[in-house]
Structure formats: C-alpha cells, structure tokens
Amino acid sequence: QVHLVESGGGLVQPGGSLRLSCAASGVTLDYYNIGWFRQAPGKEREGVSCVRISDGSTYYIDRLKGRFTVSRDNAENTVYLQMNSLKPEDTAVYYCAILRICRGTGAWFPSSWGQGTQVTVSS
Predict the structure, then answer these.
(1) Which of 102, 85, 3 is nearest to 48 (CA)?
(2) CA atoms within a 13 Å half-sphere pointing along the CA-CB vector of 72
(3) Which residues pair with 75 in a beta bridge?
(4) Which of 96, 115, 117, 112 is nearest to 27 (CA)?
(5) How far apart are CA 114 and CA 7, in angstroms?
(6) Using alpha carbons only, how large is the chain's radius of gyration in Å?
(7) What is the pLDDT, as a whole number, of residue 48?
(8) In degrees to the nearest 10, what's the CA dihedral of 47, 11, 80, 44?
(9) pLDDT per residue as tens digits for the range 11-25
(10) 65 has a pLDDT exceeding 80
(11) What is the pLDDT of residues 97-115, one digit of tens each?
(12) What pLDDT score was predicted for residue 4?
C-alpha cells in the first residue's frame, strides 16, 4: 500500500524559505514521477512542480519563476521541494503525489496523495 507523508510546512515571512518533504512507504519513490501540488483557500488544486524518473528532468509552473526546486534523496526515499523567495500568494496546502506523467504541459495524472502540509507566507 502506497503511503505518502508531506512535512516541512509552517509560517514564514515573505522572502523566506521552506523545504517540504515527501516521504514514502510501500513504494520506492525513485521508481516514479513525483509531483508537488498546492491548494490555496477557495482555489483549485494546481500542479507546482514535478520530477521525472526517466531522465531526472524537473518542471515548474511559470509563475514560480525559478523560486522552487524539486529534488530526490533516494536513501531516504524522499522527494523535496525547496521553496525560496516565498510570497504571500504561495500560501496554500502543499501535497505530493505519484504521477503517471511528469511534463511541462498537459495532465500529470496524479495518484496516492499525501495528507498535505500547510505553508503560510505572512509578515
């Protein structure tokens, strides 16, 4: 049974940084594409970033403008999302999920959602 757990969220001031973790049990994350999503209050859940296993390519939505970085730690069976230069509009619950596809355009077909971790950017 696949189980994903996000952690690392919290309260941070604008311009600050956080590193989110997506830890897995029941599956080796290195075998799968992994995506990060976020859902702000009153808004639809949106894909933020993903990492592809076939070639290690990573993708980010344009609005992030290089502020976020996704990476893997195979030994810890964990995928990270480093978030820098955070803005209030980044406030959301962040989720990770296994993806069938990781690409810059088009559906990712997520599954196996974690419980989410709250990120609040406020002064």
Answers:
(1) 102
(2) 20
(3) none
(4) 112
(5) 10
(6) 13
(7) 95
(8) -10
(9) 999 999 999 999 999
(10) no
(11) 999 999 998 999 999 999 9
(12) 94
